[in-house]
Amino acid sequence: MTETPWDNATFLARLREVGERSYHDKHPFHRLMNRGQLSPEAIRGWVINRFYYQTNIPIKDAAILSNCPHHEIRRLWIYRIVEHDGTQGEEGGIEAWLRLGTACGVPREEMLSGREVVPAVRYAVDAYVHFARTQPWPVAVASSLTELFAPDLMAKRLEAFQTHYQWVELWGFDYFNRRLTQARKDSQGALELTLKYCSTVELQKAAVQALVFKCDLLWAILDGIERKYTPSEPPLTS
Amino acid sequence: MTETPWDNATFLARLREVGERSYHDKHPFHRLMNRGQLSPEAIRGWVINRFYYQTNIPIKDAAILSNCPHHEIRRLWIYRIVEHDGTQGEEGGIEAWLRLGTACGVPREEMLSGREVVPAVRYAVDAYVHFARTQPWPVAVASSLTELFAPDLMAKRLEAFQTHYQWVELWGFDYFNRRLTQARKDSQGALELTLKYCSTVELQKAAVQALVFKCDLLWAILDGIERKYTPSEPPLTS
Question: For the segment B163-197, what is each residue's pLDDT rounded down to a tens digit?
Fold first, then answer.
């Protein structure tokens, strides 16, 4: 017997529950960041490592596109790639994040080299790309819903940087400014697709699990960054 | 010892050789088409089956995008998806091919259903998508070079349709008209990327093989269509 799909309100509540429990806005590293308690080295480490995530987002979105057989849905999704990669005339999110690096004192070639990327960050990001390549496209779309759960994360971050990290050049904040409005548009669009195309209870459950997976990997990214760039426990004495 | 890469002239000559030998402009079905010797049923069969190829092109291109780590190259490639899928304001190649179907008397829902697609066509097209998903992106790009070898194929086809198949509504030829200029732009762009990024002799050889593979699959598509829609040999007598 086929189980009846949840109604939209139930489905949305279960998705929200995941975000409320485990979105990375609650990670200790983000809390330190927003309280202004990170060293310049930790901020730079975050910017460098998070760039590996940024560079893989269009690859993840192209994987979703490549798994989606409906051209009218691909038309809705493709702007995400353009937003990130930019066009000939207009630079995108990747370029904006590179400028954030420069504003923090990380040279462009250092950012592009990926030398400083923590292995744990690399694994988490690669897992995200692999997930998008291998899961049904509506489930991969659901994994993009995280931004829905903290619409003010970017505003808080921008405020934190302007208040506590004044050594970062102001013109570096383009990326944050871009995302202020874009994140809301992105997550609304992804939510509409998720509610519509995760139309069986199996797909609905997979969508909830996709969000759990996404929250886990965002959390793991911050774990890896925290471990490398913030003071650890005092060394064990013999 | 590493083998020295071919110079551009040698590489291009080897690519051209493949096209000259086995591009599908020489397939008997295409020859019949251009001579005006296909029945309406065969034309409709070709339009229906070729639509399966059309619908998979953006999926193939998104797979290439998803395998390409350079955002400046993704920016060059992404327009192909937009050309095919269209945007909210402007319909793309898929919609134009649907109109070609209507102009030939194949209802839109018949085209979209895929019911009439010959298994051999399906396998060949699916092999193309799989190739793009699994090969290095410069090799997958090389498989797009086929149009380079018959820049006048579309012009000849358009002429043949206007001359021999006047039962097809003229407004159905949008797709052919679009491709008249687009095909040249596409293949020039793909050629530049192939020459630049297939930079080892291994990748150059793989690029030549990619073209062989592509010519083979285009040929197999026509074999499948020919088998179903053109008169076969007289039945064996016992």
Answer: 999 999 999 999 998 888 888 888 889 999 999 99
Nearest residue to A54 via CA among A145, A175, A189, A191: A175
Cross-chain CB nearest to B65 (options A62, A68, A86): A62
DSSP-derived 3-state class of residue B91? coil
Interface confidence (ipTM) of the complex:
0.88
For chains A and B, what is the number of CB pairs under 8 angstroms? 71
Tell me which CATH code domain B8-229 carries.
1.20.910.10
B80-117: pLDDT as tens digits? 999 999 987 889 999 999 999 999 999 999 999 999 99
What are the structure tokens assigned to B138, written together? 């410069």
Q: Which of A55, A78, A133 sits opposite B81 (nearest CB)?
A: A78
B65 CB within 8 Å of a chain A CB: yes
Question: Class for domain A8-227, per CATH?
Answer: mainly alpha
Cα(A46)–Cα(B40) distance, rounded to whole angstroms?
63
- H helices of A135-173, in order, are 137-142, 153-164
CA A58 – CA A79 distance, rounded (Å): 10
CB distance A49 to A118 below 8 Å = yes
Residue found under tokens 């991969």: A140
